[in-house]
């Protein structure tokens, strides 16, 4: 039984600490790259949950510290400063827990958007790794000093199991799987082909690419070993599934390091993590198919157009760019039209003055109305969408308003 007064404050502190630790381990698991979880939810959704869970866990950790210190000081009838000192020097594992808390504070502060904008990605990523140190340093004080664990073997077993599962998932899927995959396939740049203004395709040669476990529409995190900055991973979708000993990615120069891709030299080694993403055709078995691409969003949809089992005349591609010069893969789209019967509809012009997937010249139309005019059977179709976040959100809303079922609307964000 929990009494009132300061004992209740201490109990609330222990409870908030347990919840904070559970959420912290859940946060680790969300981005442990577990394939079953990635396929079920997609990395964009998992990244959002990871961020929300992290901030909730952090605030619960702060609440835990405040309540525990206040409760213990109240019960001992001493001042807060003296109680903090006594806990640090007398309770087993508390110095480690203090160091872990400091590491987590640093990670959270540098994860705020204002701070991230001031940091190079490599610096932020290195600091973010201290979260694992914070998690590890928190464990001893929970098991050694926690009142809920000291007298319960079952509670200790539960807690150790959670930590082992979280650590094992990270080691297996974030370390072991990428190392094994890169040693197996040994990808290197074969040649580079410009596709349009600021758009470049990279063809990579490797071993046993037919065994690469990737589906059309998925992406890898890429690191090209071409000099300083190689440690920054970029999410690039395959613009074609592996053919023979070659695989292709297509990259837009967005000013974040992707411009270097156009200057890659043959023989440059590439490291991959993945594949990730749920923008795949696993639930499609035929019938009307609508693809909406904006800019470099054409890349995963191009791979899907070659891969999916639609019939002649079933597939429509609405391809949104500012002008004809930005239309990429012209010859390949002509082949898809001739060999697979794909109807390709360029949607050209500068963006509208309102949130819309339409260009300014068509902004007088409603978004859903324009979609129904372009594809009258859209309500019965599977719809795949890839492009910038705001544009994708506008397409998603238009598709829902046009009657597309939620289970047939396939989108994924690639920036987080």
From TrEMBL:
E.C. numbers: 1.14.12.17
All copies of domain FAD-binding FR-type, residue ranges: 182-282
Entry-linked SUPFAM superfamilies: Ferredoxin reductase-like, C-terminal NADP-linked domain, Riboflavin synthase domain-like
TM region positions: 12-32, 52-73, 93-115, 127-145, 157-176
Protein topology in the membrane: Multi-pass membrane protein
GO molecular function terms listed in the Swiss-Prot or TrEMBL record: 2 iron, 2 sulfur cluster binding; flavin adenine dinucleotide binding; metal ion binding; nitric oxide dioxygenase NAD(P)H activity
UniProt KW Transmembrane keyword: yes
PROSITE patterns, alphabetized: FAD_FR
Name used for this protein in its record: Flavohemoprotein
Species this chain originates from: Actinomadura macrotermitis
Gene: hmp_4
């Amino acid at each position: 039984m929990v009494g009132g007064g300061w004992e209740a404050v201490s109990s609330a502190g222990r409870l908030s600490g347990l919840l904070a630790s559970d959420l912290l381990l859940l946060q680790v698991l969300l981005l442990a790259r577990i394939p079953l979880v990635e396929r079920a939810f997609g990395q964009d959704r998992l990244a959002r949950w990871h961020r929300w869970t992290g901030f909730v866990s952090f605030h619960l950790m702060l609440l835990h510290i405040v309540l525990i210190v206040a409760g213990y000081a109240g019960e001992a009838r001493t001042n807060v400063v003296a109680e903090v000192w006594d806990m640090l020097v007398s309770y087993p594992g508390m110095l480690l827990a203090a160091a872990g808390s400091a590491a987590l504070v640093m990670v959270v502060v540098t994860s705020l958007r204002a701070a991230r904008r001031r940091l190079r990605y490599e610096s932020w990523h290195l600091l973010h790794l201290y979260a694992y140190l914070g998690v590890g340093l928190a464990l001893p004080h929970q098991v050694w000093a926690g009142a809920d664990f000291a007298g319960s073997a079952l509670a200790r077993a539960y807690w150790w199991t959670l930590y082992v599962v979280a650590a094992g998932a990270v080691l297996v899927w974030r370390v072991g799987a990428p190392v094994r995959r890169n040693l197996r396939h040994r990808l290197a740049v074969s040649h580079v082909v410009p596709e349009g203004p600021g758009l470049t395709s990279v063809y990579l040669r490797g071993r046993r690419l037919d065994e690469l476990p990737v589906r059309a529409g998925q992406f890898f995190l890429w690191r090209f070993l071409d000099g300083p900055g190689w440690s920054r991973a970029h999410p690039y979708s395959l613009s074609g599934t592996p053919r023979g000993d070659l695989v292709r990615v297509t990259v837009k120069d967005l000013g974040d390091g992707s411009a270097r891709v156009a200057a890659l030299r043959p023989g440059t080694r590439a490291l991959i993590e993945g594949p990730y993403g749920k923008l795949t055709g696993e639930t499609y078995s035929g019938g009307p198919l609508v693809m909406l691409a904006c800019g470099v969003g054409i890349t995963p949809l191009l791979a899907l157009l070659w891969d999916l089992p639609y019939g002649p005349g079933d597939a429509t591609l609405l391809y949104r760019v500012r002008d004809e010069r930005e239309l990429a893969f012209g010859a390949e789209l002509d082949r898809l039209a001739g060999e697979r019967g794909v109807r390709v509809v360029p949607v050209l012009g500068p963006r509208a003055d309102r949130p819309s997937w339409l260009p300014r010249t068509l902004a007088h139309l409603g978004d859903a109305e324009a979609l129904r005019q372009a594809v009258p059977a859209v309500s019965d179709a599977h719809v795949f969408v890839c492009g910038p976040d705001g544009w994708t959100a506008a397409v998603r809303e238009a598709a829902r308003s046009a009657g597309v079922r939620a289970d047939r609307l396939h989108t994924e964000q690639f920036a987080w």
